[in-house]
Amino acid sequence: MTKNKELETYFSLMLASGSTALYNFVQENELFKGYKVGVSFSAKDFADKHQYKMIPAEVLLNSLVSLGLLEKKNDQYELASVMELLSGNYKNLSAEYWAHLPTLLKTGTPFKRMDAVADSEKEYQVQVKSLEWMMTPCAELMVEMLAKTRADIKTKKDLEVLDVGAGSGVWGFNFLYQNKDAKATLADWPAVLVVAKATAERKGIKDRVTTIEGNFHESVWPEDKFHYATLGNVTHILTAEANKTLFKKIYKAMKPGGELVILDAYGEVPEGELARALYQMGLTIRTIQGRVFQPNELKPWLEEAGFKTFEFHSLNVVPRSMGMLVAKK
Length: 329
Ligand SMILES: C[S@@+](CC[C@H](N)C(=O)[O-])C[C@H]1O[C@@H](n2cnc3c(N)ncnc32)[C@H](O)[C@@H]1O
Known about the structure:
alpha/beta; 13 helices; globular; SAM-dependent_MTases_sf
């Protein structure tokens, strides 16, 4: 290891440790309980409220600004909007998953079984709203990159998109945001699709969205209908066999020349390397056999299903871990 690499490793660990310590201190002590986005406060207000000494209180607030948890304008602070999101499901940054690591290592038993068909509806019902938030930049970039070489995406009047394991609908909906005549069909569990339906209503695209509700291994799909299909963050919760069967089902649903876009944490942007490694660790903690299959593993299965040509792109937006494999019928 070179000296600079040693220092980089040391400093990145120190940054991660310091950031987590500050964040956990804020959440555990509910420092901003009752504070609202858009309502500003001074360091003195904050120090008085908590009976803190002024200097360390101000240093703390400035560190939280650097962390992106607060914003500062003219010596006034206010909550960054991410703090609202961090008051929900993801408040403890999945600490309970990481706490399970020693047990996983000793027993091999995961913390959750999010890849078990019987558990997935209940689990994803609560997860997909946050996933929508996390995947939105990637979904926007996916459509933008595809549209560069495919004029039909933005202009085709009867463009039909199938979103399999749609969750919030983030992948399919982004086609609709770019083409006012496009239609999307979402396949997922009914309780999960409640989230997507609410988004469709809010975004005014309800009339262009159809759902196929239930177990996507069993539900009946139209054949020869779709110009594009998306499969986002799904292959890593399925076994190799289940993926192969699903690819065959998607192939049948697509028009000749139609393209399937498979999105997963297999991008090649170097800055996403740690995110990808931790993602796989997280998958091992929360699934029985979850594994990010790489494009070179997926391709033979896609070929077996009938797909002929392939394209791969990394998605260089946060979290910088994602990539898209495009397979053409
Ligand atoms: C990791 S989430 C991905 C959601 C969305 N595609 C995204 O990337 O944000 C996996 C999705 O697949 C759905 N799913 C998993 N197994 C399923 C099954 N057997 N039938 C229907 N949906 C299923 C889950 O409900 C969940 O919405």
